[in-house]
Amino acid sequence: MTPDWSDKALQDRVLYRDRLIMVINKPAGLPVHPGPGGGPTVEDWFPRLCFEHPRPPALAHRLDRDTAGCLALGRSQKGLSRLGKLFEQRKIQKVYWAVVQGVPAEDSGIVDLPLAKVNGQRGWKMKADRQTGQPAVTEWRLLGHNERRTLSWLECRPQTGRTHQIRVHCQIMGLPLVGDPVYGPASGDEAPPMMHLLARSLTIPLYSDKPPVMAEAPVPSHMQQALAACGWQK
Question: CDD domains given for it (predicted)?
Fold first, then answer.
């Protein structure tokens, strides 16, 4: 169910706000909008995030249910339209932090593999498909790894916005995300960890006469131990 936060706790999740847009810190494990099965969503909070505006904000893009971090909202039709154009033109810089299983052979690289949606017995997923897939490009670099070299901390900068893009590209590299229920290896744990993917920051050139808007999400509690093992300091 949607966390029953107080107004203050909910407003503490606002990372940036002005008259046109808002960026909030989405928790992992909660979809941004209703799906076929219904249930609570991030959108349930929007009426409590109006502040001085008469209408609630609206989604400008999406994050996966199990991804935490920066989620941009339009506070007006003008703000929503401006965000939509910036995302479409790929002018918004998105930075993700991922904890993956294994260590890459290089310190940085680019994955350029088109992705297509496929349906299976257990539901749909994305896969690499150079014939029918849509362009998908992810720049990445290694930020650290643990002593046993079983985990790595990656910074990923998607240049396109395909569904599950980072998750699939990491899997293709042989570095599946920790806790990924779809693209990670089968886990024998009774309670596998939550997915270790954070939408760390957004840089948005919203105004032509002002510096870009910048928002950064804190590391969620479920990722802190693994990131600390890879060299991150709180």
Answer: PseudoU_synth_RluA_like
Helix (H/G/I), strand (E/B), else coil: 226:
helix
Torsion angle (degrees, nearest 10) of CA 29, 30, 32, 36: 100
The pLDDT tens digits for 176-192 are 999 999 998 765 555 56
Q: Which residues contact 77 (CB under 8 A, 6 or more apart)?
A: none
Four-residue CA torsion sign, 105, 109, 113, 116: positive
Q: What are phi and psi of 163, to 5 degrees?
A: -60, 130
The one-letter code for the residue type at 182 is: V
Domain-embedded: residue 1: no
C-alpha 110/C-alpha 195 separation (Å) is: 22
- Enumerate the H helices of 12-70 as residue ranges: none
- The three-point CA angle 128-175-95 to 5° equals 80
pTM for the model stands at 0.94
The boundaries of the domain holding residue 185 are 7-229
DSSP state of 85: H
Number of domains in the chain: 1
Spatial CA neighbour of 9 closest among 30, 28, 31, 24? 24
**11-44: pLDDT as tens digits:** 999 999 999 999 999 999 999 988 777 788 999 9
| Burial of 73: CB neighbours in 10 Å, binned 0-12, 13-18, 19+ | buried
75, part of any domain: yes
Cα separation, 53 vs 95, whole angstroms: 29
